[in-house]
Write a structure and sequence with these properties.
The chain is of the alpha/beta class. It has helices at 60-68, 80-85, 103-113, 120-135, 139-151, 166-177, 182-190, 192-195, 200-207, 212-218, 223-237, 240-248, 252-262, and strands at residues 31-32, 49-52, 73-76, 94-97, 156-159. Pfam families: Y_phosphatase3 (PF13350).
Length: 265
């Protein structure tokens, strides 16, 4: 199994009218899904679809920036305890909790604390279990996200805690539904490894009990994670198109509507 952590995006960079990464003081992984080439060669509209790590630490300057971007909706995939520990309530931002508990990662930490010795390969397997859980067990959460996207094209941000796993799968589904190539979806997914910075206090606390080689797997992304989700969806449904249609309710008509709403031209 390939355990490389720093695979670089394969697509050459292109000039864009906006920076993909939105610099905010309270997040490190807030970015725009605009500019990618989708169906019929049309590009994803800038400044409509954003993905991020959690939003609890936003400063007043950050909040002003989000208001200037017209971001008025936030989809929060975090579990209940995550939201309690790092909650937020920004007046202009309507929150929608689509709860996906981080059960596999919690299990990994519990096993370590109980004295079990996890290897990096074991941890990759646990992360793949997490992603396979997104495909079937949590399909309704992602279906709800698509229903929200179809209801309005008001700028929206979706996030979890680090903006890498639950958020990464959501971003992959949205981009695929808009006709973006699998290769570009991979590239967007791997950008997390360049952008996300775990909070120093969290890193210091975790390092006291969890080996760094395990943290490097848990706090980064690897293609085997995402590919395990694609593999299960295609095993169960045959193709990603059928998975989108049958599991998430995003068939040809819905994809055409998404294209009208979120692709240029």
């Amino acid at each position: 199994m390939d355990l490389a952590l720093d695979a670089a995006p394969t697509t050459a960079p292109v000039a864009t009218p906006f920076p993909r990464s939105v610099a905010l003081q309270g997040t490190t992984n807030f970015r725009d899904l605009g500019g990618y080439t989708g169906a019929d060669g049309r590009t994803v509209r800038w400044r409509h679809l954003f993905r991020s790590d959690h939003l609890a630490g936003l400063s007043q300057t950050d909040l002003q920036a989000l208001q200037e971007l017209n971001v008025g909706r936030a989809v929060d995939f975090r579990g209940v305890e995550e939201r309690v520990a790092q909650g937020y309530d920004w007046p202009f931002l309507t929150q929608h909790a689509l709860t996906i508990e981080p059960t596999v990662v919690q299990r990994a930490f519990a096993m370590i604390h109980q004295g079990h010795r996890l290897t990096p390969a074991d941890t990759v397997g646990l992360m793949q279990d997490t992603y396979r859980g997104f495909v079937i067990d949590n399909a309704e959460r992602f279906a709800t996200l698509f229903r929200m996207l179809l209801e309005s094209d008001r700028p929206l941000v979706f996030h979890c805690t680090a903006g890498k796993d639950r958020t990464g799968w959501a971003a992959a589904l949205i981009l695929l539904a808009l006709g973006v190539s699998r290769e570009v979806v991979h590239d967007d997914y791997l950008l997390t490894n360049q952008l996300y910075r775990r909070p120093p206090e969290l890193a210091a606390r975790a390092a006291q009990t969890v080996p760094q080689e395990i943290l490097d797997v848990l706090w980064r992304v690897q293609m085997p994670f995402l590919d395990s989700a694609f593999a299960l969806a295609e095993e169960r449904y045959g193709t990603m198109d059928r998975y989108l249609a049958e599991a998430l309710g995003v068939g040809a008509a819905e994809r055409a509507q998404l294209a009208r709403m979120y692709l240029e031209g």
